[in-house]
């Protein structure tokens, strides 16, 4: 399952990221925030307009806004 399809509130772990689908500068920022393989995350909220961007991602005690296109490049497993 991809991060984009993860239900709100469900805890998960990122098992793979297709970095080829993410621009290098965006990938660098995501890694700096700890969004990489092995990270434990949950979806806090999704945008309500158009493409449901952005996605509010909880990682540790942070909440980070993430583009839906980036979330589609991440494979997760339920915890």
UniProtKB/TrEMBL annotation:
Which SMART domains does the UniProt record give?
FeoA
Any idea where the Ferrous iron transporter FeoA-like domain is?
1-78
Any idea which UniProt keywords this protein has?
Iron
Q: Extract the InterPro entries matched here.
A: Fe-transptr_FeoA-like, FeoA, FeoA_core_dom, Transcriptional_repressor_C
Which superkingdom is the protein from? Bacteria
**What species does this protein belong to?**
Parerythrobacter lacustris
Say yes or no: keyword Transmembrane helix present: no
Q: Which PANTHER family match?
A: FE(2+) TRANSPORT PROTEIN A
Its protein name is: Ferrous iron transport protein A
Q: Which residues form a coiled coil?
A: none
């Amino acid at each position: 399952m991809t991060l984009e399809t993860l239900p709100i509130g469900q805890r998960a772990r990122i098992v793979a990221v297709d970095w080829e689908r993410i621009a290098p500068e965006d990938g660098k920022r995501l890694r700096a925030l700890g969004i990489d393989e092995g990270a434990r995350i949950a979806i806090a909220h999704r945008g309500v307009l158009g493409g449901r961007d952005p996605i509010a991602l909880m990682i540790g005690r942070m909440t980070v806004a993430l583009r839906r296109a980036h979330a589609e490049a991440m494979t997760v497993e339920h915890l």
